[in-house]
Specification:
With 792 residues, the chain is of the alpha+beta class. It is built from 21 helices and 17 strands. The strands form five sheets. A six-stranded antiparallel β-sheet has the order 8-11-7-2-14-13, with no helix packed on it. Strands 3-12-15-16 form a four-stranded antiparallel β-sheet. Strands 6-9-10 form a three-stranded antiparallel β-sheet, with no helix packed on it. Helix 1 packs across helix 18 and helix 4 runs antiparallel to helix 6. Keywords: Membrane, Transmembrane, Transmembrane helix.
Length: 792
């Protein structure tokens, strides 16, 4: 009979075994994990303090890695003045981003030093091949030129950077060193970001790389505000971000306050950068006009060796039967261009005009002249047939050429090559030509004294002649024209004694009329000496006149009979202006008969065989050959390394593709097969995260092992274990709800692991090959064990 009162029921609690290996211990842990997963409010217990701090530091590292990549990328800006185009930026930006990514992944995985270095070295290999050498690829495949360029860049790339005319072409051998420095800076900076809490350490590698870039571009620096400003902004922002993450406990307590401190620091950074740039402009520590250039202390790549001065060979060319040398075709505005230059002689020792050119290997772009005001451009197409080297025909101030393997002298603007023969060489040349208007009011350009210097011993006849001609007029142009007209009145004769020493020039203005005869060699040299004695920067040019009689269809045919020499004077705003003191009509004169033996007092300076050494191109054995060669041991080694690098890159991709295929296959079949597929996907994720899963373990045992390694993150495994057990052993087919729940639990495990271990670990898990081999390894073990049992 019911009394209406409720009698409390007391249930005695049974104590189950708590040992780690006991069934009770496993059940307890599994149940507790399930309780945590099924909590109504969906909240998990608070993590330990150290785990939360570690998560904050890891989250703060991501934007710092991006800032580190930007800081390293800004170190590429000085090279904008080193290279003639923007192709090099592909390699350097890929090196900056790839280096940070590689080191960031290695740091997130806490790899030791040797594995980290190995990973960074292997990761740089595809960057070198496909980014640094991208201009030499053929249909995306490396070629022999790619291997040779990278090999040269590895062994002597830095030396080539210090011995090339700027701006240079972005060839692999020249881009390799900046790319390698950028990669090293990116990897070191990213490693310091991930593995240390130092405030300034990650900014040191970009700073050193920026300094190296300034050293390489010393001879052709970029405007200071752009690279320095961008570099300071990126580096100081990186330091600001690290300062905000220096106290992770404070960030945990108040994330909004941390962002507020960072936002407050950004204007401070901008003000600091603006103050620094203003100081550079108004209070510079150095003018930057005489920066140290390492190219001045390194050997040149094209060595001008011993040969006869080009001026001394003039008479032999004019006396020999005329033969074709080359053709020239002009486009653009060639008005006033009536000659092409091959050599410029600016050094006179009283006996010989010679060149002290220093030729550096040049690319397609040449340094633009800053001596011309409002110049116009002229394009030349040159095809050489009979001209001997080393000098190449040109006009004006060259700024671009397609000639292969050409050396350029920035002092004189002369082009040369060390090719064994010039026959068949064809190239295009773009040059700047000075204007003609206002020349009568031109003044001499500023000179350091070299182009207006004369050796001691100037003969009195030359001194008196120069003083008389210059003293009769006031304007500099009028003085020069007076010298030109005075020399043009002298008779012209190829029978005149050769030479252009002081003694030979003195005879032109001596008392004996029979000695006052000469040809272009003497007249050009005499004009240069007269002009230099009056302070005009002057040089002697050797080249060829363009004869209108040999102009056909817009193309000039130049022969040896067109050989000529003339002086050039450097005028402010007009560059090197040509004068022609040789009588254009070539009025003849009677030259004195040359004695069989030189008279007493006659010097060896007047004999053409004794002319000094001027210019012959010597081949640098360190430069690549023009013709193709067989692959060397280094080439084969690079091929093997490229193959290994490709294998390293393709293997992770193949692993990821196979995982995608398996996941799609596991979602097909019966409902029980699909639940089993969800369990197999779950065990694959456990294997990727360090849980040893054996095929002989039950689902409950796997859940227990996952709980021991992953803790509360394995709650989804504990819930999935009974579902897969029922799907395998139950005679009834599970319903669709069970299938959806199984795959939902698999997705939940993925989210748990991704949220706690970060995106780097999740990305790495996609390329982890262990799940692909564990089941096969277990199958082999079971097969071997079965064979042992059957054999007894």
């Amino acid at each position: 009979m019911t009394t209406g009162r409720t009698t409390p029921v007391h249930i005695r609690e049974e104590t189950v075994p708590r040992g780690e290996t006991s069934d009770g211990g496993r059940i307890t842990q599994t149940v507790e994990a399930a309780k945590t997963a099924l909590a109504d409010d969906g909240r998990r217990p608070a993590r330990p303090r150290s785990s939360a701090v570690e998560r904050v530091l890891r989250a703060a590292a991501y934007p710092q890695l991006v800032l580190a990549a930007v800081a390293v990328a800004t170190t590429c800006l000085p090279y904008l003045s080193f290279f003639g185009g923007l192709d090099f930026l592909i390699a350097l930006l890929v090196a900056a981003g790839g280096g940070v990514l590689t080191a960031g992944i290695a740091g997130a995985r806490r790899l030791r030093t040797l594995p980290t270095l190995s990973a960074c070295l292997l990761a740089f290999l595809p960057v070198a091949v496909f980014a640094v050498g991208h201009t030499t690829l053929r249909h995306g495949v490396p070629t022999g030129e790619t291997l040779r360029g990278l090999g040269t860049g590895l062994t002597s790339g830095w030396a080539r950077m210090l011995s090339v005319t700027l701006p240079a072409d972005a060839t692999p051998e020249l881009v390799f060193t900046p790319a390698l420095l950028t990669w090293i800076a990116a990897t070191v900076s990213a490693t310091l970001v991930v593995r240390t809490r130092s405030l300034l350490a990650p900014a040191v590698p970009p700073l050193l790389t920026f300094a190296a870039a300034l050293l390489f571009t010393a001879g052709h620096p970029l405007g200071g505000f752009l690279p320095v400003g961008a570099f300071l902004v990126s580096v100081l922002t990186l330091v600001l971000a690290r300062a905000g993450a220096a106290d992770p406990a404070a960030r945990i307590a108040d994330t909004r306050a941390a962002w507020g401190r960072f936002a407050f620091g950004v204007p401070v950074v901008l003000v600091a950068v603006a103050a620094g740039l203003a100081g550079m402009h108004y209070l510079p520590l150095a003018t930057g006009q005489h920066r140290f250039d390492p190219r001045t202390v390194l050997p040149v790549r094209l060595d001008i060796g011993d040969t006869i001065s080009p001026l001394a060979t003039l008479k032999s060319q004019l006396r020999a039967p005329a033969h074709d040398l080359f053709t020239v075709r002009f486009t653009g505005d060639p008005a006033g261009v009536d000659r092409v230059r091959t050599a410029a002689l600016d050094d006179y020792d009283g006996a010989l005009w010679a060149a002290h050119d220093r030729f550096l290997l040049a690319g397609k772009s040449l340094p633009a002249s800053d001596t011309l005001t409002a110049p116009r451009q002229v394009s030349l197409s040159v095809r050489i047939s009979g001209l001997t080297g080393p000098y190449l025909p040109e006009a004006g101030e060259p700024v671009r050429t397609t000639a292969p393997r050409v050396g350029y002298s920035a002092e004189s603007g002369v082009l040369a090559t060390d090719a064994p023969t010039l026959s068949g060489l064809a190239y295009d040349l773009v040059a700047q030509v000075g204007r003609k208007d206002g020349l009568e009011h031109a003044v001499p350009a500023a000179d350091d004294g070299h182009d207006s210097a004369l050796p001691p011993g100037l003969p009195p006849e030359l001194q008196e002649q120069a003083a008389a001609l210059a003293g009769a007029v006031d304007e500099p142009w009028a003085k020069l024209m007076a010298m030109q007209e005075r020399l043009r009145r002298l008779p012209y004769s190829l029978d005149a004694r050769p030479g252009h020493s002081y003694d030979a020039l003195r005879r032109l203005f001596g008392a004996n009329p029979a000695d006052q005869v000469g040809y272009a060699e003497q007249f050009a040299a005499a004009f240069a000496v007269l002009a230099r004695s009056q302070g005009f920067p002057t040089r002697v040019a050797v080249g060829y006149l363009l004869n209108p009689a040999r102009l056909k269809d817009g193309t000039y045919t130049v022969t040896s009979a067109d050989a000529h020499a003339w002086p050039e004077v450097h005028l402010a705003g007009y560059g090197w202006v040509a004068f022609d003191p040789t009588d254009p009509l070539r009025h003849g004169g009677v030259a004195p008969k040359q004695p069989d033996t030189p008279p007493a007092g006659n010097t060896a300076n007047d004999r053409p065989d004794d002319h000094g050494k001027a210019s012959q191109v010597g081949v640098d054995p360190g430069l690549p050959k023009l013709a193709g060669e067989r692959l060397s041991v280094l080439d084969w080694a690079l091929i093997v390394l490229i193959g290994l690098g490709a294998l390293v890159l393709l293997t992770p991709v193949a692993v990821a593709v196979e995982k995608v295929r398996r996941r799609r296959a596991r979602r097909t079949g019966s409902r029980a097969a699909r639940i089993t597929g969800a369990w197999q996907e779950t065990t694959d994720r456990l294997t990727e995260n360090g849980v040893r899963v054996s095929a002989s373990s039950t689902a409950v045992e796997v859940a227990h092992q996952a709980g021991e390694v992953l803790g509360e993150r394995a709650g989804a495994v504990a819930l999935l274990a009974p579902l897969v057990t029922a799907a395998v052993y139950s005679p009834a087919e599970p319903d669709d709800t069970a299938v959806a729940e199984a795959w939902g639990l698999d997705a939940r495990l993925r989210r748990e692991l991704r949220g706690t271990r970060g995106p780097f670990v999740a990305l790495r898990a996609w390329f982890d090959p262990r799940p692909l081999f564990d089941r096969r390894r277990d199958a082999r073990r079971r097969r071997r064990a079965l064979e042992k049992l059957t054999r007894g």
